[in-house]
Amino acid sequence: MRLAEINDGISAAREALRGNNVYAVTDSNVARLYSQLFDGVKTTVIPAGESNKNLGTVGKIISDMVEAGCDRSSTVVAVGGGVTGDTAGFAAACFMRGVNWINVPTTLLAMVDSGIGGKTGVDVGGYKNVAGAFLMPERVIVCRDFLQTLPEREWLCGCGEMIKHALLDKDIWRETTAHIDELISRGEAAYPLIEMSVRYKESVVAADFRESGLRKRLNVGHTVGHAAERLDGFRLSHGEYVALGIVAETGMFSERLDGVFLRSVRELCGKVCRHPFPIKDASAITDTARADKKNSGGNIVVMLPTGEGNVDEISLTPDEFEKRLKKCLSDL
């Protein structure tokens, strides 16, 4: 099942924006760099950045669509990174109880992960994606030329999610460990790895759209990562927090993992995130993690990669979680 179209140039994005009854949503960075794409297209430009991924922005998009005369036959075209796709997709799910949408991811993170799969949503009170809806986009258009203007921080952000995919699939693991330096430096090997990540995410979504089983494995690194992201005020990129979360969560269960595998995980994540772990308060991380949407029955859920594409779902009481986290924080 192919959910994403992969192209080199941006002509496919331009064609989507020239469709019938289209309403575009983009962010301030994309609007500045690619202003010609939106000529003659009704558009809402949202401020770039995670802090703008909220219900107020969704309300702004919906109000703008009403004022522009949109109706149930309208199609929302989101052109931007993960924040834009998640927010515009949620607005599409809410507008008149749901209209079609097309996602045109412009960042590496959105191309390989957040832009694929129909999970839309926004943050509330600093908690990641706790308001949202499942709405599969009509099309996902990946145009690799957008990556030419991507800052290094955003490139590394996407690399964090690609390393996560490598932990979940042995073929991606083999290719990523062999070509990690080329991926980080945007060498030729980066593009086959990008396509592998796109197709892996597609396969998981196709098998488990509602995240009732297999798709949960995509939350590797996200329990601690999301908590650190909120507590640190989104100072780093999302992919960097995922890499930090992977290191922390594997460290919490180091006795379960092969030593060579654990060292390889830490080495890969260290190439993506060159910052020390920002939060050393295990109690604060635990309190924040307790509100994570992945949790169940009052316990905190961690998805632990164990090698060869295997992942264990581990449910911990908050006390158990804090105890394990506190023990490994000094090594981070």
Structural account:
By secondary structure, this protein is an alpha/beta fold. The protein is 47% helix and 18% strand. It contains 13 helices and ten strands. The chain has helices at residues 11-17, 28-33, 55-67, 82-94, 108-114, 152-168, 170-184, 190-207, 222-231, 238-252, 259-272, 282-289, 318-329; strands spanning 4-7, 22-27, 43-46, 75-80, 100-105, 119-124, 127-134, 139-143, 300-307, 310-316. The strands form three sheets. The protein has a six-stranded parallel sheet with strand order 1-8-5-4-2-3, with helices on both faces. Strands 6-7 form a two-stranded antiparallel ribbon. The longest helix has 18 residues, at 190-207. The model has no long low-confidence stretch (mean pLDDT 95).
Task: Describe the structure concisely.
This protein is of the alpha/beta class and 332 residues long. The chain is 47% helix and 18% strand.
Strand tally, please?
Answer: 10
Helix count equals 13
The percent range for helix content is 40-55%
Measured by DSSP, the beta-strand proportion falls in 15-25%
Let me know the largest β-sheet.
6 strands, parallel
Q: Based on CA inertia axes, which overall geometry fits?
A: globular
Indicate the low-confidence ranges by residue numbers: none
| Order of secondary-structure elements | EHEHEHEHEHEEEHHHHHHHEEH
Terminal residue distance = 40 Å
Strand line-up across the major sheet: 1-8-5-4-2-3
Derived structural class: alpha/beta
Average per-residue pLDDT, rounded, comes to 95
Radius of gyration: 19 Å
